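Input record (one chain):
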Amino acid sequence: MLKGGYWGKMARVDLTNSKVSFQKFNEEFAKKYLGGAGFAARLIWDWVPKHADPLGARNLLVFATGPFQAAPIASAGRCAAAARSPLTGFWGESNAGGHLGPVLKKSGIDAIAIAGRSKRPVYLYAHDGEVEIRNASTYWGMETVGTTDAIKRDISERRISVAAIGPAGENLVRFANILNDKHGCFGRTGMGAVMGSKNLKALVASGSLDPPLKDRDELMRIYKEEILPKVKKAEFTKINAEHGQPIVVVPREANGLLPIMNFKQDRWKEGAEKIGAPRYTEELKIKRWPCEYCVMGCHRKITAKGYPNETSGPEYETLAMLGSNLLVDDLKSIVVANDLCNRFGMDTIELGAILGWAFEGYEKRMITKADTGGIKLDWGSGEALVEMVERIANREGIGDLMAEGLSSCSSKFPESKPFAIGVMNMGVAGHDPRAFFSMVITTITSPRGSCHLHGASEGIEAGETLPELGYNEPMDRFQVKGKGEIGVVYQDIQQFWNSLTWCFPYFSSGVNLTDQMGLLKAITGWNMTPRDARTIGERVLNLQHAFNLRMGLVPERDFVLPQRFQAPHKEGGAAGKVPPWKEILGEYYKTREWVGGMPSEGKLLDLGLEDVARELQNANK
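The corresponding structure, as predicted from the sequence alone:
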């Protein structure tokens, strides 16, 4: 019996027939998949068949909380969204801050699974243990900010959270995102397009119910006496509160991690200083914009006059992909483009990867002004950046092609294929694996395509260790041996975190795995160890990977490091370094107990995934 952390209740929404039903789950299910990404992986594996169109009625969109959303603690302001990705065709998942996760939990529901397609625009309203399907016709066509304000005005509840799509989602831009309360984004893999395909404008939640907790007194004792003091004392907390993620732009330019000119230029010192903190903080007159319960508030609230400020300011990935990646050093252009992406509902990372392809193709005269409708896609052009955001969101001119993703772009212009820096049709984020060799693994093997958050193993190369799992010492970033193995470990732990769901920057503020187990015990009553946590993450990761195999993943074709990363930088912090990616991948497979990218039957059985093992075994006959 569930003792805390869950209501034991999921909503199943059939938009085609305008029906809502509820499904109960027990403690065994909760312990096995935890919540968030884990719940989503199980539901999507069970309900999405092999040939389901990502933009069709049979795709399942899941919003899921975990046990941490039941607790009023810093780091709990998260929520997971997942479906088959319209960008990659494989596993699609994003994790957002803001307020939706805790508010959805307080509405009396742990997760919502959405299938079908409505005949008219609708939004879902979760409250008091119920989910209503409401007419959204008056909101259709509106940007995310206007939608959020209008829904809050119309519902007029005191405590409400809105996760909405904008025109990009409505126009089925394959990397459309979902904006949560104006400052949290379900950013990657095109979950906004999935919503648009279902005629679903928003998910809205209001919550006044108290989620069950096994031992509230012990939870608050641990949190206030053990967790909060060290978080507030941590240097990372102080820096993150003052400057947010923009503080890492300058050091990452120095160490070689920052993408510069579509990952082909070596240095950009002055440019990084112009767009990164501390100048960013000073110029934009930044204030903190915290998610639910957060004591850091790394989202940035712009208060300087002359800059858009209704949505959160650009974070590291946006500054990297729309700034240094395009050689745009005009901070205002980046801020404007970021705000437009937030309003239209579009992933800034994927946008930056696609524009990197386009700018380089334009430089090489493979793409011309005739193709672009007269726009000069010159490196460093903030004007071109802003104009292309609007064209892609509205599918105008060449923006219609770009809205389809990197593979479609390079297929239209075959000679430009080397400029499409991505894996599984998802652009590489602002983390050059030549600078931190362990990042080879999350770059090429993440279930959702190239990714920096499905195993951020550069942490151990930067000094953060995992002693509870036997990793007591930092690793040299250019060391080769052990990088496949540590890539496995971080992928497993990251999926545990994405299932809690938990804001993992708190790990950098000293909240270790032992601390997390203490909180989890007080919330649920479960006696779990850090190794149990890793096993949960390993189960979730293997389930996501199996889903990809069902959807046609071919590891030897798809798990390949882009050619650009197979040539070294000549200058900078990673000069002369090229990761031996095949050797690292081989170690990864060995550690995972995968043969050529196929999970062994024994491994799947050990993880309690018997039905998955049967399907994969039958598929290989």
